[in-house]
Design goal:
HisK_dim/P_sf, disordered N terminus, alpha/beta, 5-stranded parallel beta sheet, kinase, HATPase_C_sf, Rossmann fold, GAF-like_dom_sf, phosphoprotein
């Protein structure tokens, strides 16, 4: 087997204190393919063996300082020379010394002077053995290297196959954003590559989804036998997966069940015998949760390993989540389009009666007071409705941008409740609905914006009225517990579908979006209420027993109990002036100034008009107005500059300044405040509210038309 050996030189170590012995042994043993290294002491020998390997060591027994036996003992203690053959050289040998030498690991004794042929023959044997061992080690190393290379090639092939598999998975799962298609492809790609049977269990909003299904591989299908009544449903039933899938929901860890028969998988009756089932979480969101289960009939080394399964689950999770997000995006887009259609519908509705009223007035006899009264009533009501729609849209925009500014101050909850009830009472009367107010809230103090808090409660009351049929009953109750004011609005109306409850406060979410629905409205009142409640550090929730079983909305706000008797809404209203005020109206629109002048004069006020800033200041210095109503976007000097001029003039600095402008953003109001304007109202003005504001003659944010949110 070993007919050829390495041609590398082999080293022989000679340890002898006599130089003459070095010459003799080197002469006998040196050959082209082997060299003789000579040293004169045991210490030198120990150094030499640390530097290179030797095929055999020729060791003199009788040496000064460290004799041959001691040197041999030290050599055997070295790992490198523990098995190196040692031949003792000695001129005097007896049985005791020979026994001692063999006990120290000697392989032979040679008497000195040596016989060259005997020495050469014995050394040659050990040299050949050394070469054979070296060749064996070289071949073993070669085999190990070949094995490593083969293992690396196999590993590379497996890695390439896994990469190809995962690439195929990614390609298939990203080709569609349809939820059903994605679920089907997840199951198709997992069987039989990852499992013999696979199942996806899905819950939406906490309820099991009918999309749950099973996919079976060849090992399972082979056991189905329709002739014996063994269908895939009996061979691989779905039910045993469900309890363990539910255990995995909401967890980041996988669940492994082995020997499936012991945890509920049916045995007998034709059911396939599963050795293992693994449950992996796919989705762990609040609204959507899913688990995929892989069942194995037998252990298959060719099946993809755990890291590939983990990567597959990760990609499947992303694909399924993307599909649901796309579905949700489509739903949001659909609801947005429905909302825009509804907005167009709601804006057109008031225009029709306004147009009709104008047509009737054109055809009526001049001075017909009855027709004029009817027409102005129609136009006023419809205009108020349109303004309310625009106000709600502006509020939604501010909330979306996070620019809602609250005018916080301590106030009685009773003031908020009274104002909200007065706002909503016409809705109850129009639908012949009974209204009950329970609880005493006047001693509860909350920190907040009175206008926005009124808007919250009014929105809830109006929403209850909208979805309660004529003759229904609405209850508003207030309580206090653990530092929280609780306001509850309950009705016996239409109720809310269970599937809609989680989204009832979402923008554009309504149970019925038909254009001809009787309730009308944009469906954004509850969205506004939720955001305004949260801005006040409170919470809002909804409950309903379902369709036709009414609903209940509960608002909780931080509050405290006043130690003093809190005034009612009527108590805090300032006294009206007994006489009309001197009012200056400044607007570049002649139609606007003239119509507003006529309306104010009808309420007993003395009015002057100006159409630019220079004229306004000129009139003001002679007229000395008590109230100035300023448009902002004026030619030359704008409304802010006029206000600053008023405040800088000693004769005009105490004038009540009211901005009446089409600019209604928060920064516009801030500019008005900085210029010294007391109130910032949005066109078109609520004229009765404007008269009320002028009559009070005080600075009150409750009169701010911008802040008077209207319920949906």
């Amino acid at each position: 087997m070993f007919d050829t050996f390495s041609e590398d030189k082999v080293s022989i170590l000679v340890v002898d204190d006599l130089a003459s012995q070095h010459v003799v042994l080197r002469t006998v043993l040196e050959e082209p393919d082997q060299e003789v290294i000579t040293v004169s002491s045991g210490r030198e020998a120990l150094k030499a063996v640390l530097q290179q390997d030797f095929a055999v060591i020729l060791l003199d027994v009788n040496m000064p300082d460290m004799d041959g036996f001691e040197t041999a003992s030290m050599l055997r203690s070295y790992r490198r020379t523990a098995s190196t053959p040692i031949i003792f050289l000695t001129a005097y040998v007896d049985d005791a010394e020979m026994a001692r030498g063999y006990s120290l690991g000697a392989v032979d004794y040679i008497s000195s002077p040596v016989v060259p042929e005997i020495l050469s023959a014995k050394v040659r044997v050990f040299v050949q053995m050394h070469r054979m061992n070296r060749e064996l080690r070289a071949r073993a190393a070669q085999r190990e290297e070949l094995a490593r290379a083969e293992a690396q090639r196999a590993s590379a092939d497996q890695a390439r196959q896994r990469a190809d598999f995962l690439a195929q998975v990614s390609h298939l799962l990203t080709r569609s954003l349809d939820v059903e298609t994605t679920l089907s492809r997840i199951l198709d790609t997992s069987v039989p590559a990852l499992a013999d049977v696979a199942c996806v269990y899905l819950e939406l909003d906490g309820e099991p989804c009918p999309r749950t299904s099973v996919r079976c591989g060849p090992a399972v299908r082979a056991q189905a036998d329709p002739a014996r009544g063994l269908t895939l449903e009996t061979v691989a039933p779905l039910e045993p997966f469900v309890p363990f899938a539910k255990r995995t929901l909401g967890s980041a860890e996988s669940l492994v069940c082995r020997d499936a028969g012991i945890f509920g998988w049916p045995s007998g009756d034709g059911a396939v015998d599963l050795k293992e089932i693994r449950f992996h979480p796919l989705l762990n969101g609040k609204e959507r949760r899913a688990v995929i289960a892989f069942g194995a009939v037998h252990c298959d080394e060719d099946r993809q390993p755990a890291p590939v399964i983990t990567e597959f689950v990760s990609r499947a999770s992303i694909a399924l989540d993307n599909a649901f997000l796309y579905s949700a995006l489509r739903d949001e887009d659909r609801r947005k389009n429905e909302f825009l259609a509804m907005l167009a519908h709601e804006l057109r509705n008031p225009l029709a009666p306004i147009s009709n009223a104008v047509s009737v007035m054109k055809r009526s006899e001049p001075g017909d007071a009855k027709v004029a009264s009817w027409a102005t009533g129609i136009i006023s009501n419809q205009l108020e409705h349109m303004v309310r729609i625009v106000d709600d849209l502006l509020d939604v925009s501010r909330i979306a941008r996070g620019t809602v500014a609250l005018q916080r101050k301590p106030l009685s909850l009773g003031v908020v409740i009274d104002r909200a009830i007065e706002t909503s009472r016409p809705h109850f009367a129009a639908r012949s609905q009974a209204f009950t107010h329970e609880g005493n809230q006047n001693d509860l103090i909350i920190e907040g914006d009175v206008v926005r808090l009124t808007q919250i409660v009014a929105n809830l009351l109006n929403n209850a009225s909208k979805f309660t049929p004529p003759g229904g009953h609405i209850i508003l109750s207030t309580t206090f517990r653990n530092g929280v004011a609780v306001v509850t609005v309950t009705d016996n109306g239409e109720g809310i579908e269970p599937k809609l409850l989680p989204r009832v406060f979402d923008l554009f979410a309504q149970g019925n979006t038909a254009l001809d629905r009787a309730q009308g409205g944009l469906g954004i009142g509850l969205t506004l209420a939720r955001h305004l409640v949260e801005l006040h550090g409170g919470s809002i929730r909804c409950w309903s027993g379902g369709r036709g079983k009414g609903s209940k909305f509960t608002v909780e706000l931080p509050a405290s109990v006043s130690q003093e008797k809190s005034p009612s809404a009527a108590d805090i209203l300032p006294l009206r002036r007994k006489h009309g005020a001197r009012i200056l109206v400044v607007d570049d629109s002649i139609a606007s100034t003239e119509s507003l002048k006529i309306f104010l004069e009808m309420h007993g006020h003395e009015v002057r008009c100006a159409h630019d800033g220079i004229a306004a200041l000129s009139v003001a210095r002679t007229f000395a107005p008590q109230v100035a109503i300023l448009d902002i976007g004026l030619p030359g000097m704008n409304g802010y500059e006029i206000a600053k001029a008023f405040r800088a003039d000693a004769a005009l600095k105490d004038c009540l300044l009211i901005a009446l402008s089409g600019y209604g953003q928060d920064d516009d109001r801030q500019k008005s405040h900085a210029a010294g304007i007391d109130h910032h109202l949005i066109k078109p003005a609520d004229l009765p509210a404007l008269v009320e504001l002028i009559s009070t003659g005080c600075v009150a944010s409750g009169g701010d038309r911008e802040d008077e949110g209207r319920p949906a």
